Here is the input.
Amino acid sequence: MFLRERSRDRHKSLSKESSRSEKSVTINAPPEGPLLGNQSVRGEEVQDDNWGETTTAVTGTSEHSLSQEDIVCISKDLDDSVGLDCKHYLNVALSVILGLVVLLTPLAFLILPHLLWPDRLRACGTACEGLFISVAFKLLILLLAVWALFFRPPRAGLPRIFIFQALLATLVLLFVLSYWLFYGVRILDSQDEDYQGIVQYAVSLVDALLFIHYLAVVLLELRQLQPFFSLCVTRSTDGATQHYNLGQLSIQRAAVVILENYYKDFPVHNPAILTASKSRTTKHLAGLKVYNVDGPGGNNGAAGIAQSQSRAMIAAAARRRDSSHNELYYEEAEHERRVRKRRARLVVAVEEAFTHIHRMQEAEQKKASVDVMDPREAAQAIFPSMARALQKYLRTTRQQHLHSMESIQQHLAFCITNNMTPKAFLESYLTTGPTLQYGKDRWLARHWTLVSEASVTSGLKDGTIFLLKCIDFNLVVTTKKIPYIQLAEEFIDPKSHKFVLRLQSETSV
Amino acid sequence: MSFIPGQPVSAVVQRIEIHKLYEGDNLILGFSIGGGIDQDPTQNPFSEDKTDKGIYVTRVSKGGPAEVAGLRLGDKIMQVNGWDMTMVTHDQARKKLTKKNEDVVRLLVTRKSLEETVRQSMMQH
Here is the structure.
């Protein structure tokens, strides 16, 4: 999705692996502030706590001053957005012009004879006037149909032109031009008196335009409805995979469909979870030192030395690996146990908090003896009792940067208003949901690049592979053709279901 | 003990003579039978060939006349007093065994261990 991103530089996050210098370094937490605001809790946690590492890395850039990098970023953003607007407005302008031409042509055909040679024109009989009505209604239907199909807000900006739309526009243009040519030569030049013929000519134009619109519906909307390919989409950072069935589309249109589904099907990208495996591998390769015993001018050449070094490292790493799987196992078991313990405490705290809230009935509201609160105040009242347990749980599962205190309170007010149970409230914190569930500023990926070896306007084929790149991760898409299914039939007569009883009896004699 | 339809069946058999015992009003032999051509042969736990619809001994009561005479669990009864037992229904077998006017039944039974014993003794010679 190409959306304007002027405010992106405020909310970009720096993950450990990325080393792109064009990004500016800012605090990871949103401007609303950290979750609970008590500094003492942070000191206890030794696990990767994003606040700890990013606050120290802010070098000389506060929120109000701009560094050199910021200026470069902003100018780039402006360029991008101006470029997009131009393209979009160009498209809209072209389609409006084409629409006007199409709409006004039949009317022009009908009106011009009256303007240019009214005296010589034969009077229009009843059949002819009937045709006026048909022209009017068909034009109205055409207008509505064109509005319905073409004047919708665009879902995405594609890198190349949409071939079918361009084809259709060219077809319509050629068609209208050829009608004008014929009209100009045979009717205007010779000043034909047969007005009924002219009206019929205009009606035929509108009919043909309606058929072109039907062609447009079939090409743009109907053709890709029948599923033909099965696309397998894998995220490169954590391997989350989904499958989608699509029809015959071009690669860029397929990419748009996949991205629209990405936001609702894939669990949100959480960079905090990914750092663990990298640290493990760097830990055990870092402990190995390679000493060159032969010396620089020894028996091996330079290439041989490099080869033997790498082989030695791999062999030593393989031997080392025998113990690190043990560490992994115990570490994961310990983590699992800790998560479950925190989860149990959280669930109990939330259930207890919810028991304090009661919805007041209408009748009781008249005689309010205690303070009556609206949902937001109720949420704020019970939030402190569960806040600590919730924060600890989010820290353990490394989700704390996805939820701010404000968003949690809003969610709590929402659940209270809609009579949800504590379990319903907790569901969005216990499981990682799709990206759509979190606020717009968490959608770390909004600018996508399509990387493909085949041309992006070419159609999908069996075995097509393309990549959708965003700053933090890639989506790898592979295509497989859905096999041709041959169904055979077998008829079972309902009377053929018969059963016998077979026993094994035992008799004593 | 499998059979080929149309071919004569041959087996090593043992003669067992059981004297019926009076128990109250009835004459009993002290064992139970299972099987028959009207029964389901696949449920027979004692037969080697699960299509064998012969009559098998499914229970031998302790100290009864059958055990005393040498009948064992899992034996297949081939003849009772000269009547064939390999192709009879369950009820016909019961009738042949429980005739009121006979107090001795002479059975021909076969079991797998009989064949092995014969084979071993033949090999020794």
